[in-house]
Amino acid sequence: MDTSELAELRTMYIFGPAEGSTWGLTYELIEARLRERDPDEFIRVDEGDEGPVRGSVMHFGITFGEEGLEGMARLSPEGIALEDCTVQAAAEFVRWLWDSVVPDGTSITFNTEWGLEADLPDAPVPDTPRPRLVAAFLAHLEATGGLD
User: Are residues 79 and 15 in contact, defined by beta-carbon separation less than 8 angstroms?
Assistant: First the structure.
């Protein structure tokens, strides 16, 4: 599979703080940042079995260019996932996370649904320009194996 074909593949990307750190994530923060982008964005919080926070999941929509994507966030374990997206969309999303959600000086780790299935560990997201983010995500997809 060549790079252009790999770049079009869709999977879920999972982003979170580095082990032992926190973003101080709240649903209110995520909702506020999403509403700044689009006041009519789809947002829903499903309460878990343990009450309004523990076990809960926030579902949301986010648009980059013409593409509408869906994501979800959890407070425990802390993280945000973007479903069914390409490496390009994942790079756009992680830039938005750094600009709007993640506190300055805090790192982001990532994995994908395929990476989890291949037992790949979470990897740090390089704080680099978008083309290098795309390259890092492509390298991850290649490392998952089984794409040939």
Answer: yes
The single residue listed with the structure tokens 């704080």 is 127
Element at 33 (helix H, strand E): helix 27-37
Q: Look up tokens 């994530």; give the residue.
A: 25
Say how far apart CA 106 and CA 83 lie, in whole Å: 23
Selection from 64, 60, 107 nearest residue 87 by Cα: 64
Pair type for strands 78-85 and 43-46: unpaired
CB contact at 8 A, 23 and 17: yes
CA quadruple 27, 33, 36, 40: dihedral sign: negative
Contacts of 21 (CB under 8 A, 6+ apart): 106, 107
Q: How far apart are CA 18 and CA 31, in angstroms?
A: 22
Is residue 133 within 8 A of residue 141, CB to CB? The reply is no
Say how many residues make up the chain. Answer: 148
Q: What is the pLDDT of residues 83-130, one digit of tens each?
A: 999 999 999 999 999 999 999 989 999 999 999 999 999 999 998 888
